[in-house]
Amino acid sequence: MKTKWTGTYTALVTPFTRDNKIDEDAFAGLIKAQIKGGVDGVVPVGTTGESPTLGMEEHIRVIRMAVELSEGKLKVMAGVGANCTNEAIELTQAADEAGADGLLHVAPYYNKPSQDGLFQHFHAVARITRRPIILYSIPSRCGIEIEVETIDRLAHDSINIVGIKEAGGTPDRVSQIRSRMGRNFYILSGDDAMTLPFMSVGAHGVVSVASNVIPKEISHMVRAFEMGKPDVALKLHSKYYEFFKALFIETNPVPTKAALALKGLMRENVRLPLVSISSANRKQLQKVMRATGVLK
Length: 296
Prior knowledge:
Elements: E1 7-11, H1 24-37, E2 41-43, H2 56-70, E3 75-79, H3 85-98, E4 102-106, H4 115-126, E5 133-137, H5 139-142, H6 148-157, E6 161-166, H7 171-181, E7 186-189, H8 195-200, E8 205-208, H9 215-226, H10 230-246, H11 254-262, H12 279-291
């Protein structure tokens, strides 16, 4: 049966211990909270998982843990993108072997390939796996956008390229993709604040940062919209909107880890070049969390 990439997928943080190693106990607790919260899946080692600062063995270890700890109760969409095609291929193969349900491939960053370069890159990774691939377009971090024509070209070239995580910031872009690709090509919002606007024009759900902290509430919001209850979804969106924005008061995932630490769920340690949230922004984040009921 074809896997459906709809609903809520948590872009997991990668917890670290005091000595900056992966905190496997905290990671296990995070996965359990996601299962309990009713999300549809998890995305280990994406941007929120600080993938640029994890070594290859660590990266693969986190994917394996996510698969094992999910116990088939969550779909695992492994972050395996890279700006080096050979590295992306190696990570793809490792995630495939680990049993990931799908693969998230971000546009190569920093080296700014042309649209044909993007096509060749994604073509190369798609041909070495049968796992479904979700493209990831985030121009603010990569400096380039995966253009709609390129998305169409890739989907027709590789049947396992089945969707896109869209973090370009506009419903118009979602409308363009939907018009070109049809309903069977999955579109997931890459921005919690844009989930409902994107779903209103055809997106299928969200890869959420906020659901690290409030998985039940985000999955409820998305599911309410899917079930034809937009008023319920809008009420939840409105309640947590300021929290969505506060999670980007500094570079992701710094505020998210701070929020999880404020709730006593893990340490807020990040790896350089990221540093812990500033004192002023921690106070602002805590204020928003209390105001929205995220922190009692």
